[in-house]
TrEMBL record:
Gene responsible for this protein: LOC115189834
Entry annotated with the keyword Acetylation: no
Domain of life (superkingdom): Eukaryota
Transmembrane segments: 6-28
Organism, as annotated: Salmo trutta
Keyword Repressor set for record: no
Protein name from the UniProt record: Interferon-induced protein 44-like
Biological processes, Gene Ontology terms: immune response
Keywords noted in UniProt: Membrane, Transmembrane, Transmembrane helix
InterPro entries xref list: P-loop_NTPase
Length: 362
């Protein structure tokens, strides 16, 4: 017969400030000895406006974003990705470009999204801690619904990492050439050879399907507070230039498991962690976008099998990216008379032909 774990009890004194009223209460919780030890490592300090309800960090009472942390929630997010079709019928694939400093987790995100779909952690060769990053060329990865399955409408594009200044890493003109669709697949970036009409495979007249439909800035939560002035400048300049092209942009904040013990225990605390809230605010400030554009994720990095909550956070980030693309490109899909809504006149839910894309809109 399996032995039952010995249970320990602990008294918690909690104080909650609601306006000018302070409510104090005591509760008792039971847990095993191992858990008891773990809890005491992170239980201090207490803050007056938060409740340490998990015992593993500074966790706010109410999460500021809601997610359904259930198998069902994961299933429906996964299904949404598999069945996603861009609202703009001319778009075959949604091409999402990941940009960020070396080691921020760009390649890991691609690996992680593929892992979610395959149901097991993949060990692709392009991830690591090389100081300048492994990827030197433009490489696009289809996301398939399962191993050997049909590609979904999402393509994730990896490029050379951003440098600290203008002299290293992906340059602004090269980034814009990729976004506008001029750079051919596999283009090898060279600091002394910017992409131009003479570049081999250069596309002088790229189609809407050659361009990038969402720019994602990837930042490491462990390093975001100490982002250099040069990198901040690079990110903000890119952000402003991409805004001029009317391409949606979001920030992917990776390594969230490494900045908060509660999140390390379980990523479902990501939107209840005060530390994470601060990091997300900083990430938004660094890039120059609102906090609502910041999507935290934990990439698969040390584990060999996928887990439900990590999948949910990754799929939720993908969902928001696809949503941002639909919201933006919808404006460039004028409704046909049959599709037009009598009240608002905006695109109907059914896919319609995209007459001009943001980049090429004049
Ligand atoms: N703990 C943790 N490690 C991560 C995460 N994302 C990436 N890594 C690790 O960070 C390192 C650099 O990641 P990589 O994807 O190669 O970065 P890239 O240069 O931006 O493509 C690798 O060792 C990854 O395993 C994350 O969310 N959490
Ligand atoms: Mg990489």
């Amino acid at each position: 017969m399996p032995s039952r774990p010995v249970l320990y009890a602990q008294l918690f004194l909690c104080t909650v400030n609601v306006g000018w009223v302070t409510v104090s209460f005591v509760f008792v919780e039971h847990f095993t000895f191992r858990r008891l030890l773990f809890r005491h490592m992170w239980i201090w300090p207490f803050h007056s406006d938060s409740i340490i309800d998990s015992g593993v960090g500074d966790v706010l009472l109410n999460p500021w974003r809601e997610l359904s942390w259930t198998e069902k929630g994961r299933g429906s997010l996964r299904k949404n990705l598999v069945s996603f079709k861009p609202a703009c019928q001319s778009l075959n694939q949604v091409r999402v470009l990941l940009m960020g400093p070396p080691g921020s987790g760009k390649s890991s995100f691609i690996n992680s999204v593929r892992s979610v779909m395959f149901g097991r952690v993949l060990l692709l060769p392009f991830i690591g801690t090389a100081t300048k990053g492994f990827i030197k060329k433009l490489k696009s990865y289809d996301i398939r619904s399962e191993r050997g399955g049909k590609p979904t409408a999402l393509t994730l594009c990896d490029v050379l990492a951003l440098g600290d200044g203008e002299t290293t890493g992906l340059t602004l003109p090269d980034a814009l050439a990729v976004i506008k669709g001029h750079a051919p697949e596999g283009h090898k970036f060279q600091s002394d050879a910017p992409i131009k009409a003479e570049t081999s495979g250069y596309r002088p007249n790229p189609s809407v399907n050659d361009q990038i439909h969402c720019a994602v800035f990837v930042l490491n939560a462990c390093q975001v507070m100490t982002t250099s002035e040069d990198l901040t400048e690079t990110l903000r300049t890119l952000q402003a230039e991409i805004s001029d092209l009317d391409i949606p942009q979001v920030v992917l904040l990776t390594h969230v498991d490494q900045v908060c013990h509660a999140v390390q225990e379980d990523v479902k605390f990501v939107y209840s962690s005060r530390i994470l809230q601060e990091k997300m605010q900083k990430a938004a400030e660094v890039v120059g976008l609102p906090v609502s554009y910041v999507l935290p994720v934990k990439n698969y990095s040390s584990e060999l099998s996928v887990s439900c909550n990590t999948d949910i956070l990754l799929l939720s980030a993908v969902h928001h990216i696809l949503q941002a693309v639909d919201d933006t490109f919808e404006d460039y899909c004028p409704p046909t008379p049959a599709d037009a809504s009598p009240v608002t006149g905006i695109c109907s839910a059914s896919p319609v032909q995209c007459q001009s894309s943001p980049v090429f809109n004049v």
